[in-house]
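[audit] Reproducing an earlier prediction to check determinism. Same input, same settings, fresh worker. If the tokens differ from the archived copy the diff job will pick it up downstream; this log only records the rerun itself.
[audit] input (289 residues):
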Amino acid sequence: MAAGEDWSQTEVRATVLDYMAMLKLELSAQAYNKTTHRKALLTRLSGRSEGAVEMKHQNISAVLRDMGHFWIPGYKPRSNYQTILATEVEAWVVSNPEIDRHALAAAEAPAATLEHFDFTSFEVSSPSRRNNFEAGVREMEQAPYGEETRVAVRRDYAAREARNSSLGQAGEELVVKFERFRLTQEGHDGLAAKVEHVSRNRGDGLGFDVLSFDADGREKFIEVKTTAFAKETPFYASASEIRFAQKNAPQFSVYRLFEFRKTPKCYTLPGMIEQHCALDPISYRCSFR
């Protein structure tokens, strides 16, 4: 197979089937091995490299993202995919309605508070931007399918997960623990004791979830957004959260927790939310596309 040669429909179909088998396991929180899957898939392809398969899996993640589905963490969405790939993924989703049940169950599954957690590797960098990515308030574009391709099934699972109060509560409680840990490590036990879970103690309409402090004692207003899935999964902000962030930008941050059901990690988006994301002014969906 010559490098750069387009994938045949047979190759695309085999790759989609392999990816979807892993996705169902991912959504069901069952163990699987990506390397084992990739090596088995390579035997059914025409001389493709492991790197080429990795990129095709990333293309599938991008198609799923554009359809409003969850994708496999670790396969970061890679756009500019073939129309034949988008068509094949869509056809699979239409003919396999059980994936909808798996995704809904994953979005709505309860989460438990983590009593003991090692924060050593908790903080990570925020998603990197493409060169042509523009943050700000703008309506989301339609999925970049070819003209002859339609989105037959589209359900915003991120929106369903955003309404999972159990998951949201567990994420907020972990951030409270982290902020107390951080301040204690910095030698500010008094400030650590004052960290407050305000959405629980005062209600969830204030525009932020956790009151914390910088080392100099200045208040920090933290809004927590939690997903069980990938780093780049879109999240939702309310109108009050957006207004509060705009008004209190120097002290406001979104703490975005991801892969919560495995080993939770967190990145921060300080200041106004629309500085970091493409923010839809109607749905308040915050995307890294």
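[audit] rerun output stored. Observation attached for the diff report: The longest helix spans residues 165-185.
[audit] end
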